[in-house]
Structures are given as structure tokens and as C-alpha cells.
Amino acid sequence: MNQAILHPENQTFIQEYLDKDTSQLIFKKAPNSNVSMAELVAQIEAKKRCKTKLPTWYQTPLIYYPTKLQIEQTSSELTANYKAQLVSGAKLLDATGGFGVDSYYFSKQVKQVVHCEINSQLSELVNYNLKQLQITNIETVAANGLLYLQNQNTHFNWIYLDPSRRNDSKGKVFFLSDCLPNVPEALPILFNYSPNLLIKTAPLLDISAGIKELEHVKEIHVVAVNNDVKELLWVLEKNTNKPVSIITTNLTKTATQRFRFWLKDEANTQAAYSVPRHYLYEPNAAILKSGAFNTIAQAFNCYKLEQHTHLYTHQKLLEFPGRTFSITATHPYTKKNIKALGIKKANISTRNFPESVADIRKKFKIADGGTSYLFFTTNMHQERIVIECKKVTEN
Length: 395
Fold this sequence. Notes:
Pfam family, one: Thump_like
Number of domains: 3
GO biological process, one term: methylation
CATH topology of the largest domain: Rossmann fold
Radius of gyration: 25 Å
GO molecular function: methyltransferase activity
Number of strands: 18
Protein name: Class I SAM-dependent methyltransferase
Strand order of the largest sheet: 3-2-1-4-7-9-8-10-11
Largest sheet: 9 strands, mixed
Organism: Bizionia sediminis
């Protein structure tokens, strides 16, 4: 940490450029000789990214920001607050502490939090910021979390880990064993010091792959913010062998959509099918990620359009966790039919359809936007169709 960044003239400079382009600043002279312009620009760019993601930090005076990459990799306050509701007790170890956002929210639910961060500079920065935030029940330790556990021989009510993907891991579907720390390999050590583990992974991780790698999975939380899946949370309980529960949550500006199901039930549930009725339902992103394709149909007593078409329909208006559309018409998919509609502007989606949105727009010269929605999909009779509709409710 360069303490000179905290001097009033430098803080004023940072504040002044938060809403301005910093690209030309690198060629200018810093207002204080103890700080380089590169350092000030780094603080400005990092703080900019906190305005909506980390408003508590953004609004607190004299916060020292890490790199913008570290800001991008940290949890948002929304998701950190969500995961804090999953823990309780006297002591929690945040074994992969990072910028400390998760620790900050854990400290509101747990009496004492230990924040371990292997990067000593980041650990120092977090320790300083916690004082600015007036948090007194978090201890910061510049150390590897797993080594700290074994050296201290201290037991915790919960251990939290946010493993990072190794730089040499390739491909879109990755495994927990591809991450650091290697959680599957470390499970015996972790369970030796706590009966409860909370593990955060990126949405990229395949749920079935994660279940195979881990032991004693109690719950999986699929967390989305404004219909964008941000993280998977794995709750592990020592020695539990109960069926896995999956909780999907979509945090929106106006509501929180939750849907819970048992993983074993999805495989044993058969959805009913129907041609499009009066309303069309599109599950939110958290539900789609969870794979609750049949249980969601059963829970809301609605119909799937086709086995691999994850769109649903019903003659009645339902309080469905996702987007709801009123169907205007359903058309067989032919070039002649679509051109005859004369639609020049529409919101287009494809589900279980061989052509991309870009290709469809180009073929039929349909611009993006407007109030009309077109779903290009496949029905229960294996026919390609276009559902023309209007939006009733947002995610």
C-alpha cells in the first residue's frame, strides 16, 4: 500500500475523475510527487467498478482499492449477502479471502471471522479497509488458508472457499480439481476442522461433475442477479448422505424468485407436453442452469413444448419464476410464413432450434428491439414453429 494515495489532494483527484475518461491521464503529472499517475488511474478504474457492485466500499471515505481484475473477481454485495444467510455460529474461516467482501458479510452472521489471503499486499489492504468500514470481528491473516488450518489446529463452525481456476486449465467445462486450492483433494483436511463447508464456484462448473467430485453435498444454490447466473454455492455437511437439495434464486431489482427441488426428483419426474396455449413461460437463468426442467413443470402444473425445448405453456396466467408472455399467434416455420408477417423489428430468441438469432435476423431482415417477441423453437410433434407474443412480466 502506498499511503500517499490516501492524502486529501490525491483522494480529491480520484473523485474528480470517476466519471471521466482516464486514457489521457497517463501522460500527465500526478498532483503529488509521492504517487505516480499510474497508481491514481488504477485506483480510479477500480473504484469505478465498485459503484453498483460494491456500493458500501464506494461510498466509504478513504477506501484503498486493489487492481480492477481483483474487483472483477470478487463477489458483489448482493451475492455476498445471500451466501452470508447460509452460515451461523461462533467462528468461520474464509480460506480464500480475496478483497474481503464475503468476509464482511459473514461477519454480520458469525461472531468471529478469520480472513486468510495468500497475497500479503492484498491482505494488508483488506485489513486497512475493514478499519475504515468499522468492522472489528474479522482477523486478517496473510497465509495459505489450508496451511493456516493445519498450523493453528483450530476448529470452525464453517469454512468458506472460493477456489480459483488454474491458468493452465482449458475448455469450457472445468472441474474443481482444476482449481486452486484443489477442494476434492483437501476435503479430509477441511472436514477435520469444520463440520460445514461452503464452496463458491463459477457458473461454468457443471453441476453433475461437481457432485461427482465432492462428498457429503447437502445443498446447491444457483444464484442469479437480474437473470444472469453469477455463482454456484455448494453446502457440504460432514457425514451427510441425504438427497441433494437444489435452491435456485434470481435476485432482481423488484423481487427475489426462488425455486427449490430435490435432485433425485428431477430424474423421476415426467413433464406433460402441449402445443402452445394462451401463455408462454420462460424459466429464469438460475432454473435453467439447475436443470429443473421437469420439476418446474410439475410444480406449476404447466406443460413443456418438447423434451428439449425448455419453454412452458398454460392457458392461465401463473406466477412463474421467469418471463411470461401472452401468445398472439403460432406459425409453422417456413420462409414464406415469416416473411408474410411483415415484422421489421422484434426481440428474437431461439430454443431447441437449428438456426442462430443472427442468422434469422439476416435472413428475414428483422431489427432488434420493439415490443414484439418471436420464439423460434420446436414443438412436441418435432415441428419447427415461431411463437409470436407480447411480454407480460419480466424476470
